[in-house]
Write a structure and sequence with these properties.
Elements lengths: L6 E5 L8 E6 L7 H11 L4 E5 L8 E6 L4 E2 L3 H10 L8 E6 L2 E9 L5 E7 L5 E5 L2 H8 L6 E2 L6 E4 L5 E6 L1 H6 L4 H10 L8 E8 L2 E7 L3
Parallel strand pairs: 2-3, 4-6, 12-13
Antiparallel strand pairs: 1-2, 3-4, 4-5, 6-7, 7-8, 9-11, 10-12, 11-12, 13-14
Length: 220
């Protein structure tokens, strides 16, 4: 029987069992596409990553990202978590991952004593803004009253940086607290926007001075 080691990590948190969970297979050589997808479904986390040798030896690795039902071209927290697991492979503090969306650069962060403290990433593509989405549809995705969406700076707007299309929505503090993913609302939105190809992530944010507070939902 073949065996493959894996690591589970908690991303975007400073405590165990918090943040976003991720499973990482540091050496996925020999696994088929179907096996990777089955393993991601079995873990039942938002994403699972599989690390393979790079096509270009100048890069660190080829990284494939799967959620429960499909492979993803790029996503943020899987790269942060995979970079943390592979930190010892960094050259001059940098990892370079080959992914469907392009090359992802991961910077490894250590404290003065050399202890690993985190990683930061650069998206493989520049952020591209797309079309606007009606307030009613955006509110339906989050299960909130349309009055909770702020449009003085911008209407709900589609954007992409190599991963799933994101819907960027500024909301009031009350709407942020009340929000929760509404599957029916997401389906109405992707049906109305064929360019989404049935997939959408929702990013709600609110401003606190120079700081942005955000929540993300991606049920499709």
């Amino acid at each position: 029987m073949r065996t493959y080691p894996f690591v589970t990590v908690d991303v975007f948190t400073d405590r165990r069992f918090g943040g976003n969970q991720l499973a990482v297979f540091p050496d996925a050589r020999g696994l088929s596409d179907a096996e990777m997808q089955s393993l991601a479904a079995e873990f039942n986390l938002s994403e699972t990553t599989f690390v393979l040798p790079p096509a270009d030896p100048a890069n660190t690795a080829r990284v494939r990202i799967f959620h429960r039902t499909a492979e993803m071209p790029f996503a943020g927290h899987p790269n942060v978590g995979t970079g943390f697991v592979l930190a010892d492979r960094a050259v001059e503090g940098v990892l370079r991952f080959e992914e469907i969306a392009g090359l992802v650069e991961v910077k490894v962060e250590r404290d003065a004593a050399g202890v690993l403290t985190g990683t930061t990433i650069a998206a493989p593509q520049a952020l591209k803004l797309g079309g606007e989405v009606p307030v009613e549809l955006a509110a339906g995705c989050a299960g909130i009253d349309p009055a909770g969406i702020l449009t003085a700076r911008h209407a709900p707007t589609l954007a992409a940086d190599g991963g799933n299309r994101r819907l960027l929505v500024e909301v009031t503090p009350e709407a942020m607290a009340a929000a929760g993913p509404d599957i029916a609302g997401f389906r109405r939105t992707v049906t109305a926007h064929a360019e989404l190809d049935g997939k959408l992530s929702l990013y709600l944010y609110r401003r606190e001075g120079a700081v942005l507070r955000a929540r993300m939902f991606s049920p499709l």
